[in-house]
Structures are given as structure tokens and as C-alpha cells.
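== Folding task for one protein ==

=== Format: two labelled lines per protein ===

==== Paired sequence and C-alpha cells ====
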Amino acid sequence: MICFTRLNSVYYSHIVIRIQNIELMMNEEVRTIMSTRVTTVTPGQHVADVLELMEQKRLQQLPVVDKYGKLVGLITSYDLWQNCRNNPNCAEELVGTVMTRSIVKLAPKDKVGTAAELFMDRRFKTLPVVNLDGKLKGVVTAFDVIRYSFKKAYPEPILYADRIMA
């Protein structure tokens, strides 16, 4: 006969450990998971350049920086759709006229939990990370948070080859 009290005790202690791990993960700084090699554009570039970059690199948005590396906006696939759907000459427009200027950004010392909350509540997919001077230091994506959380929870590789269908 199985002792359910012992099984429940083991199960609940496992849950408590997982919750503690999540708390530790969410208090990690964004700088530890952000990507620092970021493709950017400038306000003076043409939308055609953005379209080409997005297609080549399979991106949904690009940070827009000035000549000093300061973040001045984002240009997203939604911005392009909204501004170009009825404008046949949109490819010749400048990024600065199409980009979103009012953006949410993170600081390198912000917590992973803050990023996770923004991804869930605001449905963002990518957040730029800037220093105190407003210079772009990197980006963090929802996938970065998921990958980080998964690797912390499961440091050993999980074999999934048997789950791949031929």
C-alpha cells in the first residue's frame, strides 16, 4: 500500500522548491539574459531598408537609434502595416516618420520579473534595454525569459528525440 501522506509531502516540497527557484530567477537582473548584438536602424534610413532587414533577419521590430547610439524609437511590423497599407510609396518614407516614439524600455539593472510582467500584461515581444544616458545596450525578448527560466529549472538536457515525428 502506498503512503499518500509521504507522496503528498514530497510533491509539496518539490512545489515549494520550484516556487523559490522562480523567485530567484525573477530577481535576476535583465543584463544577464539580454542580447547585446542588436540590429538597429536610424531615423534617416528608408523604410525599404527596414523591410529588407526584417525579412533577412526574420525580425518583427527594430530599435531606432541616433548617431550617438541613443534609442529614439522602435519600428515594428505593425508600424509598417499601419503606415504602408494604403501608401504605395511607403518604401521611400524615412524611418523617423513611421517609427513609434513612445516606448517602454528597461534598464540593465531591472529585474527579469519586471520584463516577464511586461511581456504578460502588455503583450510585448521585445523590450529595449538602455543605460542612464538612453543609449541602447541590448534587447530582451519573451523567449529570452522563457529560455532562462527553463535552463534554471532544468539544468540537465532533456532528451526529446523520441518526441520528434518523422
